[in-house]
């Protein structure tokens, strides 16, 4: 899949002196090997790779600061890289430059169990964190599917399945350590749960996709592992009924921990991929957290709501293994869908709308996919009004690409017309820049540009993402 | 109480041409009457008034934009004013200028009950909003005590008693309409519950105290009125035991809706003021929201925790009238304390620390107050690690002022040493600017300054607050 012609034009020269200086600083953690560059020039989007000129593996905030200063002194772009699981081209290098791989910054620096907080280096992944804190009785809830790094998740304002109950990285990031474009190291906050002390630097950097600074440490909120957890699945005769059941659940204030929607295509794919036997119909997958009695109460209420919407079956999974199998299947939906069209790549887009418009938005988007003969699935964190369209395309078939782009553009236009957003959790990257302008309008975009220009006057921080210069 | 000498030096000339233009625009909603200016030059802090040169009452966003453009063309400061209930001098006019009173922007513009959202003009107060939405079965939870305007609450990143369960204005503001320093009207977001679409303009303006732009409309999240609500009060032999009970409640993840601490001084004051008979001992006041069974389960758990910490009595208040009486008493604590020293004014300061340090922070602060013979009370939203010190002083007695300033400065230093913040919910205003620098350090403050200079290059938006120029 090609990129806008403009991208290549932005390529900036990387002087040998810079490469030498970085090589001296990072030694065997510096590379210009084509395979290494290529690996760092792609994410899980369908874009062809756009490799950086060099890759360095940082181990400390100080090293990141030094790399940024060096690149800054040569006006060379610098691109942070965590696990490469972004979906909109966030880590590609359209202007070339130097990628800072943060995966070796993988230490959990502090767990303050009694405060329900932890501070980690940016390269720590969510699964690693949960592994390391398991014995404290706490957990970190944000789960975007991929085992992403906390730094990347903060930079993308990630969320996922648990957000309906626990919030997103926006709500769960207490403080960051950030290297700014001039190489300064800024601590954006404290471990206080709330604060009115000045501008919200933390949330300026959360979601900024590396374009305002590089996140090197993240302090997050943790939660007590619930006393009881149960899951439930039920199928529905139609998408409309499934989504209506969710809308009612949310409107009644039932504190579900997760509520995921899979359309019949998604169900068919995971049945094949995970050897499951779910009815090939729209499916809701719930998880309840609370006390034993509380979980039961929530489930009964939801069962009642589901029945009112003609749900077929309402299966309980209170055992850990059953629950894990269901959620693994949900998380494998991306890979399962890829198998539905061998050799294809997936375009995964997302949007988020006010909950009352969710059924309409999903149904119209499904109709559009059908009309365009897409091999697709709609899967969503529907409790938040957020859903994904996965489209299996041949990235080298211009027709295929054009069709998928059309579905995507119309989905975004639809979401915006409903007072929703062009991306609920994937971010803007390269691919949603035009949509961002549609969503926010000229005055807000200009305000964002004022921020970008002030924080990164040389445009060296992951340039060409979120906003055009 | 006097102000830093620097303030007067900043006074800027307000040319007659500007006053004439504003008078023509606002007609009888323009005033230079001394009483009007004086009223708008003070808040609930102990500062002597610093009146603006003129006051205008805006009724629309467009009028605010016109006023900002007029003031901008003369480099004259502009100060937004809601209900005047700020506590750190936020609305004072140390450089003179024009106050825009937003209290006439008091329309609830839209209630989207099915989406659990509402959009209001900035002058709508929280009580007014709750009154207008009562029949939808929803409520707006943020409750800072004062019946503040939603615009002011957003600008101050306010929170209050319900924040432990429902979050603060940071979490509950979905979108804003803001007039920026150049008079542009910016919409910062949509009604989507979550978004990864670009920089978080909403949270840049939330907590910016009018120094980056003037908030004219606020879109907030609403919540279903809980099926059941109950309150409980219990007294403790010591502050340490009361606070430890709270810490354990939070660490166990009990979803209390409110948990308020009053020390024995606060209890004594409200007994006198509200004709109540509470034991003169440290007190916790809980509120539980949920299903009938859930509320009972929470209360039982808390009762058990309280008993382990030697609580004396654990009284239930399930009836609306009893609950309202208790909460009214809590909310009257400020006025009740004023009666403890007739003629005094209150200095009300706040800080917020990680919950594990809360007992220590409160105890050391109490000891400091005692040592300095203050007439004081400590009252707090302790579930968040947030507490207030109310000190009754004679603002014209330099000794009194110096003592209170000392207690305040040491409390902040203590909170910062515990990785807490210099203000959990009151904001910076004029009075906490030096503490802000202590808290964030030079690099973070410089980053805040870059933001301020970029968004307000002429320093006309509520100048002299949060940061020095």
Compact summary:
With 469 residues, the first copy, chain A, is α+β, with helices and mostly antiparallel strands.
Write the layout of secondary structure elements.
2 copies of one chain form a homodimer.
Chain A: H1 5-9, H2 16-26, E1 30-31, H3 34-40, E2 54-57, H4 61-73, E3 78-81, E4 98-101, E5 108-112, E6 117-121, H5 126-133, E7 138-139, H6 150-156, H7 163-166, H8 169-172, E8 173-180, E9 185-187, H9 201-205, E10 213-221, E11 223-224, E12 228-235, H10 239-251, E13 258-262, H11 264-274, E14 283-290, H12 292-308, E15 312-317, H13 320-331, H14 333-338, E16 345-352, H15 358-371, E17 375-381, E18 386-393, H16 398-417, H17 433-455
Parallel strand pairs in A: 2-4, 3-4
Antiparallel strand pairs in A: 1-2, 5-6, 6-10, 7-11, 8-9, 8-10, 12-14, 12-15, 13-14, 13-17, 16-18, 17-18
Helix pairs in contact in A: 2-4, 10-12, 10-15, 15-16
Pick out its properties.
seven-stranded antiparallel beta sheet; homodimer; Alpha-Beta Plaits; Uridine Diphospho-n-acetylenolpyruvylglucosamine Reductase, domain 3; 469 residues; globular; alpha+beta; five-stranded antiparallel beta sheet
What does it look like?
- The structure is a homodimer of 469-residue chains.
- Chain A is α+β, with helices and mostly antiparallel strands and 469 residues long.
- Among the domains of chain A are: 108-224, Uridine Diphospho-n-acetylenolpyruvylglucosamine Reductase, domain 3 (2-Layer Sandwich), CATH 3.30.465.10; 228-334, Alpha-Beta Plaits (2-Layer Sandwich); 340-417, Alpha-Beta Plaits.
- Chain A has 17 helices and 18 strands.
- At the A-B interface, strand 9, helix 9, strand 11, helix 10 and helix 12 of A face strand 9, helix 9, strand 11, helix 10 and helix 12 of B.
- Chains A, B: One of its GO terms (molecular function) is D-lactate dehydrogenase (cytochrome) activity.
- Chains A, B: Keywords: FAD, Flavoprotein, Oxidoreductase, Transit peptide.
